[in-house]
Amino acid sequence: MPASTSTSTSTSSSAHSANEEPTQDAGLRARLVEAGVELVAREGVQALSLREIARQAGVSHGAPRRYFPTHLDLLSAIARRGFADLAARTAEVLDGNDGSPRARLTSLARTYLDFALSEPGMYELMFRHDLLESNRLGLRDTSLPLFQVLVDLVARIRPSTDPPPSVVAGALWGNLHGVAQLWGWGSLPLATGSDDIEPLLRATLDAHLGPEAR
Hints:
- By secondary structure, the protein is mostly helical.
- The chain is built from eleven helices and no strands.
- The chain has helices at about 1-45, 50-55, 65, 70-95, 100-120, 120-125, 130-135, 140-155, 165-185, 185-190, 200-210.
- The N and C termini lie far apart (about 90 Å).
């Protein structure tokens, strides 16, 4: 009987440890991503080395490799958080918004610029070509639905157009991206002599969608 009890206790302890390990792994994985999110917000993309992320997370320099086989995997996990944040902000301004498609698209574009200017480090990381091209962790699966929201709104504003809505939406997005970057660098405020980005936003929409009906 004593031997049986000992074996039972040992088996129970092993099972308990096995159950704890995935939880601990998930917790450390999340801690590494959170450290990266905080680091990119504070110091920018250039600070996101594996060594620095590990230091911020309070783990050994080799720990990230256990959960993220490559640097791109970890950067992609951090970028996914950025896309999730942008998607949440987009949903917040569009859900329950009963305005016209043009008004909804204006709100979407404004949200995009606000995100780019308030989170410049994350914004730069999210649209890095190497991350999107590699599609680590299905990163494109989190970014493309946001673009589709833009395409759908363009299609409602200009239902019969050539080029098609996806091309118009792509040109509009490219224009907004350029405005965000040049404004963030200080080039556009200097060139326009204004600290108000709203006229540029409206001019961009007019250029791609036509003047708004008054």
